[in-house]
Amino acid sequence: MEIKTRSAIPSDIEPIYSLISDLEGQLMDKTSFESIFLKNLTDSNIYYIVAIENTKIVGFISLHVQNILHHSAPTCELQELNIVPDNRGTGVGGILMHEAERIARSLNLEEIELTTRRHRERAQDFYRKLGYDFTHNKFVKKL
After folding, report:
1. What pTM, to 2 d.p., does this model score?
2. Distance (Å, whole) CA 26 – CA 84
3. DSSP-derived 3-state class of residue 37
4. 112: which strand partners?
5. Residues whose CB falls within 8 Å of the CB of residue 81, separated by 6 or more in sequence, listed in order
6. Is residue 137 scored above 90 in pLDDT?
């Protein structure tokens, strides 16, 4: 299996929509998703990267660069990472994480932050194996 990565392009919307819906466990509102996806593709602080096997997108990761007051340098947050179910456990996630870290280093960012839901123990183990430390609790209130 040879996996290549590249920046996402507008025509990648369908497989990315499927990956994000799978990640969230529900179909996302398609109209809103398309609008946000296309807008974010033009934002220089957002990096959407796809992993491709042959010609099929098998993974997606997004990185959002932020200038936060309590950091001494720009940082970034990994917002989404998902792999097509048949490709999980094959190294695709590691390839995407390596690419995200390469981008972050090239931008001289201070760190990569990420969150994952409590029930995603496999994801938590994956991030720990890559050297990520559990340092925060995240609170959410729906409005």
Report:
1. 0.92
2. 15
3. helix
4. 76
5. 23, 59, 60, 61, 62, 93, 96, 97, 114, 123
6. no
